[in-house]
Amino acid sequence: MEGDRVAGRPVLSSLPVLLLLPLLMSRAAALHPDELFPHGESWGDQLLQEGDDESSAVVKLANPLHFYEARFSNLYVGTNGIISTQDFPRETQYVDYDFPTDFPAMAPFLADIDTSHGRGRVLYREDTSPAVLGLAARYVRAGFPRSARFTPTHAFLATWEQVGAYEEVKRGALPSGELNTFQAVLASDGSDSYALFLYPANGLQFLGTRPKESYNVQLQLPARVGFCRGEADDLKSEGPYFSLTSTEQSVKNLYQLSNLGIPGVWAFHIGSTSPLDNVRPAAVGDLSAAHSSVPLGRSFSHATALESDYNEDNLDYYDVNEEEAEYLPGEPEEALNGHSSIDVSFQSKVDTKPLEESSTLDPHTKEGTSLGEVEGPDLKGQVEPWDERGTRSPAPPEVDRDSLAPSWETPPPYPENGSIQPYPDGGPVPSEMDVPPAHPEEEIVLRSYPASGHTTPLSRGTYEVGLEDNIGSNTEVFTYNAANKETCEHNHRQCSRHAFCTDYATGFCCHCQSKFYGNGKHCLPEGAPHRVNGKVSGHLHVGHTPVHFTDVDLHAYIVGNDGRAYTAISHIPQPAAQALLPLTPIGGLFGWLFALEKPGSENGFSLAGAAFTHDMEVTFYPGEETVRITQTAEGLDPENYLSIKTNIQGQVPYVPANFTAHISPYKELYHYSDSAVTSTSSRDYSLTFGAINQTWSYRIHQNITYQVCRHAPRRPSFPTTQQLNVDRVFALYNDEERVLRFAVTNQIGPVKEDSDPTPVNPCYDGSHMCDTTARCHPGTGVDYTCECASGYQGDGRNCVDENECATGFHRCGPNSVCINLPGSYRCECRSGYEFADDRHTCILITPPANPCEDGSHTCAPAGQARCVHHGGSTFSCACLPGYAGDGHQCTDVDECSENRCHPAATCYNTPGSFSCRCQPGYYGDGFQCIPDSTSSQTPCEQQQRHAQAQYAYPGARFHIPQCDEQGNFLPLQCHGSTGFCWCVDPDGHEVPGTQTPPGSTPPHCGPSPEPTQRPPTICERWRENLLEHYGGTPRDDQYVPQCDDLGHFIPLQCHGKSDFCWCVDKDGREVQGTRSQPGTTPACIPTVAPPMVRPTPRPDVTPPSVGTFLLYTQGQQIGYLPLNGTRLQKDAAKTLLSLHGSIIVGIDYDCRERMVYWTDVAGRTISRASLELGAEPETIVNSGLISPEGLAIDHIRRTMYWTDSVLDKIESALLDGSERKVLFYTDLVNPRAIAVDPIRGNLYWTDWNREAPKIETSSLDGENRRILINTDIGLPNGLTFDPFSKLLCWADAGTKKLECTLPDGTGRRVIHNNLKYPFSIVSYADHFYHTDWRRDGVVSVNKHSGQFTDEYLPEQRSHLYGITAVYPYCPTGKKKKVSTVM
C-alpha cells in the first residue's frame, strides 16, 4: 500500500519542515468558510430534502470506494451529519448513541440535525474536476508525507451548510440561532481512500444535541466524529471503529486543532486494497490519536489533545513526530521575512540536486522519492485572498508540483517616515570571550536522590567533579558532610525507579539503568520525547515602561533523538512579549538540557537531572539594558514531565509591534566544573518590519548549578569544555494568540573547527529516520539502527506505546491500580490504602480510633444516649428523646407526671416514652377520649371501633375487624399491616388452619362445598388430617398445608406464623434448596398452569397471568414479559396497558394489593392500576411535578418514593398520594433511579450529574443521608436492591458496567463490564434484567457468570425505560426502624 509504505526521509542540512509547522499555525486562527471545497448547486451539488431524519437516494459512484478493506459502489448522505455505504435505519437507532454504529458510517458531525423550515441545507456530489482532486491530493500529501504520489481519480463531497439542531416546538419560542457548517470529502485513487473533515471558523455553534426521548432538558449528547465498519450484528462483538470526540470540549476543538497543521482540517486514511486494521489519522502535529477498537500501527494522541481545554497558545503546535521532519532548502531569514501574513504554499524554489543528495530510496519500491514530490496543501493557490472588491476567485488553479519551499505574502510596508527603529544607531558590540574552565581542587559530598535497587551496569558514562570556586552570578556552593556514611541498604529508594544504587567507600550513588539517562536521581528513557511544564513571572521595564506578569504558563516539547526543543509561553503582556523575542536563551536552556549528544559528550540532563538552577545575565547593546533570568528546575512530576519556574527581572529594549526577530545559527562553549556549568557569549540579532532591517546584539553570562554525587570514581577523561551547536533558531510572537514561541535545534560535542570534512553519522546530527520515540544507534560511517525507547515497541522507525498495565509488565502491587502513561506507567493505591516505602506495595491505612465505634466513650447506654464523633479521639454525648441528663448519665422522663393524656385516659410510662389509652366507656387515641355509646353496636362493630382508636399508637399493628352491613363479622378477615388472611366463625374467632401468608390466594370462607362438587385434593386431605392430629387448633409453630381455592398446594409453604418457608411442587413435595432463613422469602414458581379462559377485559388492558413476570415501560405503553424460571418467554409477551399521550418512565409494583404504579413525564403525574380484571388507571399525584422519573414502592409501610430530575427533588407519599413530603431538595443535579429496602428501612438513589455522579442512601424518613458510591461511575441510570442477596446493584451507561455492593458500600464488584446503554434494571432470582437504549429491548444477565443470556426486542422499536419484576407473593421479613441505615 503506497500510502503507508515506510519511505526514507531526505537528509539535507538546510531549513527543515519543522519551520513550516509554526508558520502553518501563524495563518488564520481557523479555516475561513470560503476555504472549504467549492460547493453549491452551480458546482453540480444535489440538495437533500429538508427535514429531521432525511436520507439521500442512493449515489452510485462511477468508481468504487474502499472503506476499511471492503469495496463499495453506493453512498448515502443523511441529515444527521453522516455518510454511509447503506441506507440508514431510523435515527432513534443510532443518533443518540456512542460509537460504534451497527452500520458502516463516516461521521463528520453525528448529531440530531434538523433542516426543516429552511434551517440550512445538505449538499452532495461526486466530483472528478482537477481543481477538487488537486486540492484533495495536496491535503492528503501534507497529512501523509509517505503518500507523496497519491493522485485521486475521483472524490465525493458532502457539505452541511448552516444547519440547525433539532428542537422541540414550543409555543411562542423562536428557533435557536446556532447553526453549523462543516464538510466531508472522500478521495480515492482506486486502491487507497482518504477522508477529509473540514470545520471553518465559527462553523460549530452548537456542539451536541438533546436526545428526543431523554425527556430531560439537562441531557445533551456531544456530537460524535469518526468512522465505523459496522460489521457486528450481535451483542457480543463489535466491528472496528475510530472515534475522535467524546466531550463537548473535544467537539469545540475540531475547528481549533488539526492533524495536518491547518486548524479545522482533519485527514484520515480510511480504506485500502491492502490490509488496514483501522482508520489511520494524519500524523502532522502529533494530534493523531483517537479512541479506536483495535490497536493502531503507531502511537497517536488526538483524543488527548481534543479533550483538553484548548487555547490558541496550546503547545500542540509544536508536538511533531518523525513524519514532519522533512528538510526543506532555504534560510530562516528568508522564510520568516514578513510572517505577519503567512500563507502555506509550495512554490518552485527547490534547488535541483542529484538523487543521492535530495532523496532516499523507498525500501519497498527501491525508487527514489524526490523532495519536490512531497507536497502540502497549497491554500494560497486554492483560495485566493480577498481583493479590493471583497470577492474571491471561485476556481482554484493548479500549483506547480515541483516546488516545496514556503512562500510568503509581502507584509504591508511600514509607515513612510520610517523613523521608528529599535535603536537610533548601531554601536560597537563586544566580541565573544571564552571563560576559562574552573579546575576543581577537592571533591564534595552530595545528597542522593530517589531509587530502586537494581544492579545492572551503567548505560552511559558518568563523572563527578568538585567545586570550590564562586562561579558567575550564583554564589551558592554545595557542600555536604560525609561524617556519617550512608549506604544503599537504607537509601536506595532515594534513586529513580529507573536507577540502581551502588555503595562506595564514602557513601552511595545512584546510576540510571540501561536505556535510561540522567543523574540517577532523575532518569528518562533514551530516545523518547520529553515535555516541560512551568510558570513564568516577571517585573520588567520595557524601555522605560514597567510591565508585570505572574505565573503565566510555559510548556516545552523536546524531540530527544534529534535535539529539537520547542517552547511556548502564553499570556505575557504584548510589550514584554515583543521585547523578549530576541531572548531565545529562555527556550535555549531546554536545548542544552536535552541536546543531541556527539560521541564523548553529555547533555545537561545527563549531569544535572531535573534539579538545577539556571542564572542568566543579559546586557543589550548599545543601550546597555540588563535583564536577569533565573530558571529553577523542581523535579519530574508523576508523568515524567519536568517542572520549572522562570523569573525575569530587569530592563529590556523596546521592540515595536509587528517587528520580527531573527537570530542566526550560533555556537556556544560551556565550561564544566564540580556542580556548575558556565558560559559567556555574544549574539547578534536583527529586527525587521517591511523594508526596515536593524541588527543589534547582546552579551549573555550563564551559570548552571546542580548537585552531583562525589562518592563514585571520577572520570578524568570527561572534557571540561563542550561546544553547543545551535543549527536553527526561531522566535515568534502572535498578538492574537498572545503566545511567545521559541524553537531551537541543538547538538553538543567537543570543541571543533568549522571545516571538518569527516561525514557525520545521522545519529549525531539528527538526520536519521528513527521514530521520535526511538533511540538512534550509530554504526560504521553513516550507518545506524533504530530501537524503540523504553516503554515503546516497534521496529524503531515506527514505535507505539507499550501498555505495561495491560501486558502485566509493571510492578504495581496488590490493592493498587496501574495507570498507563506514554512510555511508562504509574501506580496509585486504591481508596483506603497508601504506599509502603517501596512505592509499589499498597498497605491499608489504619483509620483513627473512633470512641463511638470501639466503645471507649463514656456516654450512657445506647438505648438512652447517642455518641457523636468529632474526629480523632473527641466525642460528645446527648440523651435520646424521653431521657434527661448530660449524655453521660441519662434518666427516664416520666411523661405521665406531666398530664399529657386525656383526663378520661390512663397513662402508661415506658423507658424513653409513654402511651395513653382511653378508659372503659370511652373511645379515642388517649389524647382525646369520647364517651362510648355502643349499646346498639354489635360485637364486630365494637371491636372495630376500639381497634381503630388504638391504631393511632406508634408501632401499633392491631387488626381492625371487617363487618358486613348488618354489623356481623365477615367470614374472611385480613390483617391490614401484615397481609395474613384467615376465616372466622360468627363470633369472630379464627377458624384453625385457614390462615394464608401475604401475597397468596386468600382462603375460601363460608359454607363447605357440597360433596358432589369435587373430591378433596391431596392438599385438602392432608390439611384435614393434620388439624385433626393437632386437636383442631395448631400452635403458631406447627405446620398446616396451605391450599388454594381449587385445592392445589400454594407454591410457598411456611411453618405456622413463622418466617421459615420453602417452595413445593404440585404434589406438595419440598423443592430442594429453597428453604429460607427468617426474614427472607424464597422465589417460588406456580405449581400448576393457569386457567386458559378468562373474561374479556377492556380493549387497552390485558391482565397478566399468575406467576413471575416483568413489566417494562415503552413510550405510552406498559409491556408484559413473562418468565419461565428465569428465561424470557418472548412469545408470550404483550402490551399490558396503553395510555395514549403519556410517556411512562418509572414503574414499580405493590405486591400486597397487586397494583402497578408508574410516572408519566408527559402528563407530569404518578398513577396506578390494579392487575385485576376490569381495573381502571387512577392518577394519585397530579401537581408539583415536572419530570418524575424513578419510582420505588415500600409495600410494608405503604409508601412510594420518586425522583424529579428537573425540580431536583426526592419526595415520598402514601400509596394513595396523601401525606406527601419532600425528603431532599439540595445537592441534587440529575436524580434518576431510586430503590427501597423496606426490611432494613433504607432508601437509595442515583444522581447522574456529569460533573460528579454518585449513589446516595438514607433512612426512609430522610435521615442519615450520605454518599455511598462516587468513584468510577459515569451515568448510573438503573438501580435495584435485591432482597434475597441483600445487594445494591446499578447499571451505568457511562462506564458500561453492571456493579453491585453491600448496603454499606463495601464489597463492590463488577458483574458485567460491556453493557450497551442501560436505562433501568431489576433483579430476580439469579438474573438481572435491564432495558437498553442501544438495543431497544430487555436484556438478561446472569448474576454469577456475568454473561448475557437472552434479550427481548419488542416489535415496536423505540426506547424502553423502567422495568420491574412482579412476584406471586410479597417478600417477607421484619422491618427495622426507619432511622437505621445499613
Strand order of the largest sheet: 24-25-26-36-35-32-33-34-28-29-30
Give the C-alpha Rg. 40 Å
CA-based shape? elongated
The residue fraction in helices comes out at under 10%
Domain Thyroglobulin type-1: 937-1005, 1016-1084
Subcellular location: Secreted, Extracellular space, Extracellular matrix, Basement membrane
Organism: Pan troglodytes
Disulfide bonds: 974-981, 1054-1061
Describe the overall structure.
By secondary structure, this protein is mainly β. It contains 16 helices and 81 strands. The strands form 24 sheets. It has an eleven-stranded mixed barrel with strand order 24-25-26-36-35-32-33-34-28-29-30. Strands 1, 6, 7, 8, 9, 10, 15 and 16 form an eight-stranded antiparallel beta sheet that branches. Strands 57, 58, 59, 60 and 81 form a five-stranded antiparallel beta sheet that branches. β47 and β48 form a beta hairpin. The radius of gyration is 40 Å and the shape is elongated. The two termini are 63 Å apart.
Q: How does the SSE layout of this entry go?
A:
Layout: H1 20-25, E1 46-47, E2 59-67, E3 70-78, E4 82-84, E5 105-110, E6 113-114, E7 121-127, H2 130-143, E8 154-165, E9 179-188, E10 192-198, E11 208-209, E12 221-222, E13 224-228, E14 241-243, H3 248-252, E15 265-272, E16 280-281, E17 291-292, H4 302-307, H5 332-336, H6 355-358, E18 359-361, E19 368-370, H7 379-382, H8 488-491, E20 499-503, E21 508-512, E22 516-518, E23 523-525, E24 530-542, E25 545-559, E26 564-570, H9 574-579, H10 585-593, E27 596-597, H11 604-608, E28 611-621, E29 626-636, E30 642-652, E31 660-662, E32 666-673, E33 676-689, E34 692-706, E35 721-734, E36 739-749, H12 762-765, E37 774-778, E38 784-788, E39 792-794, E40 799-801, H13 804-807, E41 816-821, E42 824-829, E43 833-835, E44 842-844, H14 851-854, E45 865-869, E46 875-879, E47 883-885, E48 890-892, E49 905-910, E50 913-918, E51 922-924, E52 929-931, H15 939-950, E53 972-974, E54 981-983, H16 1018-1029, E55 1052-1054, E56 1061-1063, E57 1109-1114, E58 1117-1124, E59 1127-1128, E60 1134-1138, E61 1144-1150, E62 1155-1160, E63 1165-1170, E64 1178-1181, ...
Parallel strand pairs: 24-30, 27-36
Antiparallel strand pairs: 1-7, 2-3, 3-4, 5-13, 6-8, 7-8, 8-9, 9-10, 10-15, 11-12, 13-14, 14-17, 15-16, 18-19, 20-21, 22-23, 24-25, 25-26, 26-36, 28-29, 28-34, 29-30, 31-33, 32-33, 32-35, 33-34, 35-36, 37-38, 39-40, 41-42, 43-44, 45-46, 47-48, 49-50, 51-52, 53-54, 55-56, 57-58, 57-81, 58-59, ...
